[in-house]
Amino acid sequence: MRYRRVVDTLGARFGMERWSRRFRSICLLAVTLATACRNEVAASAEQFQSFWPRFREAIVREDKTALAAMTRFPFETRGALDESPTSHWDRTRFLAEIEALLRQDAGMSAKPETLRAFVGRTVSPADDDDASARVGGLVFQRLDEEWRWTGAYVDD
Q: Is the overall model pTM greater than 0.85, yes or no?
């Protein structure tokens, strides 16, 4: 009812008395759409927050099979610089090289720290957006309503 009063007041103020019903409907539709969009963004952020503990646990346990199940292939790796070439790993190459990737320096602190240790101490990463997230040099995307590990920045 509060919205109705505001809409009626605005309609009267701008000489739209006869249009107030239509104007009210448009305003209510706009509020409903804004609320729905906000809820969708919150839901996908929650999905990443529920994905992260499973991913983190697989890294800490060194469970390559579980990691592969959470990964989109081809998995993309690239160096730290924009001009660094991109490499595409299939599942076989991923399983063969994942240990070397996780032993690399995460580059997130002054003291050298492996990517595995960095992920292990990152209990709850900061939220990014509803379609992608980045935790250190790890890149994640929401694909078909599920979060997947899609790439990593690696040492050149």
A: no
pLDDT at res. 125 = 86
Tell me how far apart the alpha carbons of residues 102 and 114 are, in angstroms, rounded to a whole number. Answer: 6
d(CA 149, CA 72): 6
CA quadruple 41, 46, 52, 57: dihedral, nearest 10: -170
CA angle 85, 88, 90 (to 5 degrees): 160
φ and ψ of 95, to 5 deg: -65, -30
E strands present in 83-131: 86-89
Amino acid (1-letter code) at residue 122: T
Q: Which residues pair with 139 in a beta bridge?
A: 134, 151
Residues 68, 47: Cα–Cα separation, whole Å: 19
The per-residue DSSP string of 12-45 comes to HHTT-GGGHHHHHHHHHHHHHHHHHHHHHHHHHH
